[in-house]
UniProtKB/TrEMBL annotation:
Keywords, comma-separated and alphabetical: Secreted, Signal
Source organism, top-level taxon: Bacteria
UniProt source species: Enterococcus faecium R496
InterPro entries linked: Ig-like_fold, SpaA_PFL_dom_1
Protein name: Conserved repeat protein
Protein family according to the UniProt entry: Belongs to the serine-aspartate repeat-containing protein (SDr) family.
Positions with biased composition (Polar residues): 112-132
Region (Disordered): 112-135
Pfam families in alphabetical order: SpaA (PF17802)
Length: 727
């Protein structure tokens, strides 16, 4: 019996020390064996690896590059089965290692089948990549030049083998057979075949992944090689699966052998010890026509932990050779869905006073206006330019539930664009009161972002929480990685996120950044929603861009070659008078560059009724005319004045979102002045005027009687009087 101490750093940054007895577990060693001593070209064989879970998680197989890895299957915690094949004959040796532990060595002989004498067919160089597990096949030479009209027995066997090998092949594997909750999984797949094997009549190639294994849908990335005829379509949920369809650009596919790869990357679902257990193993399928391939992976729940203050990042991160997550990779293009942060405030739930959270964003970035949402209930509208606040509704339970309460924090959240600083003032928090702050980074200037990098090549993002006269800080290192995706980005903004019922125009601005390369085919399309009317282009359109409007589509196109790096903006006005109070006005734009289409995030504007209605009544509810009022701004400046009409009402002009005070300056004749100053708040969800009812008391007048002593004039006490009417 011996004891192993494991130090675990969970996703909240807390350290847990686990002691585990290994008396009943296998010895900490690695052993391997192959299922056969010989295999033919292209034939698959399997390598079985045995070892403790910690060794298998950091497993490396030393082998020749001629051995192509296929499916990797986790049989149990202590066994893994790996499939290999080879296109080249010879004797190959394999050894497993993990850290300083090394296994025995096994060998296998790969030989050429007796009936196959043709040379191997080379898959095109540009379609291969070490990052994808692509088995190669042996294709026979063409037999178009047959020596006789009737093929010989040898020719018949060769033709049959050629027809067999020309059939397409597909495969898929999980990069990490077992991984912790909330870590990143990448599925890598391929399809390959000879000329004429990939046909339009076969329809779409489809990957199915269990929805329960995927975290937030918004963080899924589907990638294919640049200029590949393999094209991913929009993925969707069907039943219990997320479906990833692929199609092809079929032009030219009948003329050459084909080999195409793809990857699907996502953050796996959240499972926590003591909560809902994952339904392992999760089965993934790839189908095309009548062929099918499968793989699987399992998810390990993370330890339960509730820190005082923590910052979580829901974007791409560096992964080291052991599969551990490292520095943050900020997406400079598809920013809204990729660069998301969540700050956990008082998650452990004890009472705290004077809680203030401060988050300093890196230079060259700002708040994304509409970040993807957490799985919370409630109103999902962001405040302060792109912030949401969610309250934990089941403190202390394993599977956290939250409810958006952003509207309660409108006057407690601020974002200073000059200092790039976000501040949230929570005040005093009672026991069990916890919150999540949700936002995303938008890269506005890549050059400025990179200028802010420190000597280690990374920019910084620092958040802190002040409470009970102490400070906790969280510091992250960030960089924008190199990408083989198009080096062009498009962002859309609107001049107003809220308009009043007397405002009818919006200005939309498209921010175009070309980070590198050139383009003379740049096209941007903006489809105006129903109810929008185009008004005019603004003067910021550069000379190398043509602008036009046709059938409700605003279109910008390059009339010359645009070279990067460069940035420019394109602005236009629309009329939105047709929208009613309470409506959300939505719009996005599409960037078209060669074969690539990129949609911007949707910008939103809400139409509100920002008026204040004052109703003046007496003690019996009777409406009173003639009362004069003034409306004061938050800095006590008089901005409007008015008087109640015959119906007892005074209706102000529309006012912007903010805090106001209403004060009576003159009461109706015969009534006492109301000296109370009434606070009124107009928010971004106001769909009708804010109504304030003020009651006046009737001024009944009075009589003062004073009794004096005759002669001396001294005031006398105790006199009793009776007041009688004239009669």
């Amino acid at each position: 019996m011996f004891l192993v101490m494991l130090i675990v750093i969970n996703q909240f940054g807390n350290i847990t020390v686990l002691a585990e007895s290994l008396a009943e577990q296998p010895e900490r060693s690695l052993t391997i064996e192959v299922d056969q001593e010989e295999a033919a070209l292209g034939e698959q064989f399997q390598l079985r690896v045995r070892g403790t879970p910690d060794l298998l998680n950091a497993l490396v197989i030393d082998k020749s590059e001629d051995l192509i890895e296929g499916e990797v299957k986790q049989l149990n915690d202590y066994e893994r089965l790996i499939t290999y094949s080879s296109q080249h004959s010879g004797k190959y040796e394999l050894t497993a290692r993990s850290g300083d532990i090394q296994s025995n060595t096994v060998s296998i002989e790969i030989s050429v089948p007796e009936e196959s004498t043709s040379e191997s067919f080379n898959v095109p160089e540009e379609s291969t990549s070490e990052s994808f597990n692509i088995p190669e096949e042996s294709l026979s030479e063409s037999f178009n030049e047959a020596r006789s009209s009737e093929p010989s027995i040898t020719q018949e066997s060769q033709i049959e083998r050629q027809e067999e090998l020309l059939n397409y092949d597909i495969g898929i594997s999980a990069e990490r057979p077992t991984l912790p909750s909330r870590h990143t999984q990448t599925l890598k797949g391929y399809i390959q075949g000879g000329a004429g094997d990939i046909l339009e009549e076969y329809g779409e190639m489809v990957v199915r992944v269990p929805r329960a294994s995927i975290g937030l849908i918004e963080f899924i990335r589907v990638e294919v090689a640049d200029d590949s005829p393999l094209k991913p379509l929009a993925f969707y949920q069907e039943g219990t699966d997320v479906v990833f369809p692929f199609t092809f650009d079929y032009e030219g596919l009948n003329e050459a052998a084909q080999s195409y790869t793809f990857s699907i990357t996502f953050e796996v679902a959240f499972f926590q010890s003591g909560g809902t257990e994952p339904n392992n193993d999760f089965q993934v399928s790839l189908t095309y026509a009548e062929r099918a391939a499968n793989t699987e992976f399992s998810i390990t729940p993370i330890p339960s932990s509730r820190p005082i203050f923590s910052k979580l990042y829901y974007g791409s991160r560096e992964i080291d050779s052991q599969g551990n997550l490292g520095n943050l990779l900020i997406d400079g293009q598809d920013v809204t869905n990729s660069n998301k942060f969540i700050l956990q405030v008082n998650y452990e739930g004890s009472r705290k006073d004077g809680v203030v959270v401060t988050d300093v964003l890196p230079q060259g970035t700002t708040l994304a206006p509409n970040p993807t949402t957490w799985s919370s209930t409630g109103n999902r509208e962001p405040i302060s330019g792109g912030v949401r606040i969610a309250e934990v509704t089941n403190p202390g339970e394993a599977n956290v539930r939250t409810h958006y309460v952003s509207e309660e924090f409108v006057d407690k959240v601020s974002f200073n664009k000059e200092t790039n600083t976000l501040v949230v003032d929570f005040g005093n928090l009672a026991e069990g009161q916890s919150y999540f702050i949700e936002y995303a980074l938008e890269v506005t200037d890549v050059d400025l972002f990179n200028e802010g990098r420190q000597e280690d090549g990374f920019s910084r993002n620092r958040a802190s929480m002040t409470y009970n006269n102490q400070v906790m800080s969280r510091d992250y290192r960030l960089r924008i990685p190199e990408s083989n995706l198009p080096a062009i980005s498009l962002r859309k903004s609107v001049d107003k996120n809220v308009i009043n019922l007397n405002e009818n125009e919006l200005t939309y601005t498209l921010h175009v950044s070309m980070f590198s390369g050139t383009s003379n085919t740049l096209v941007i399309e903006d489809v105006l929603e129903e109810g929008m009317e185009f008004v005019s282009f603004l003067s910021d359109i550069p000379s190398f861009i043509d602008a036009e409007v046709n059938n409700g589509i605003v279109r910008f196109s390059a009339n010359n070659t645009i070279g990067g790096p460069t940035s420019f903006t394109l602005s236009f006005k629309v009329n939105v008078e047709a929208y009613a109070v309470g409506d959300q006005i939505l719009n996005f734009a599409t960037l078209v560059n060669s074969d690539n289409r990129l949609n911007t995030s949707t910008v939103r504007t809400r139409k509100i009724d920002g008026r204040i209605k004052v109703i003046k009544t007496d003690e019996n509810g009777q409406r009173l005319a003639g009362a004069k009022f003034e409306i004061l701004s938050s800095d006590s400046q008089v901005i409007q004045e008015g008087i109640t009409a015959e119906n007892g009402e005074f209706l102000s002009e529309p006012l912007p979102v903010g805090s106001y005070q209403v004060r009576e300056t003159e009461a109706p004749e015969g009534y006492l002045l109301d000296a109370t100053v009434h606070d009124v708040f107009i928010n971004e969800y106001s769909i009708e005027e804010v109504t304030l009812t003020i009651e006046n008391i009737l001024d009944t007048g009075g009589v003062e009687l004073i009794k004096h002593a005759e002669g001396s004039g001294e005031v006398l006490q105790g006199a009793v009087f009776e007041l009688q009417n004239r009669e």
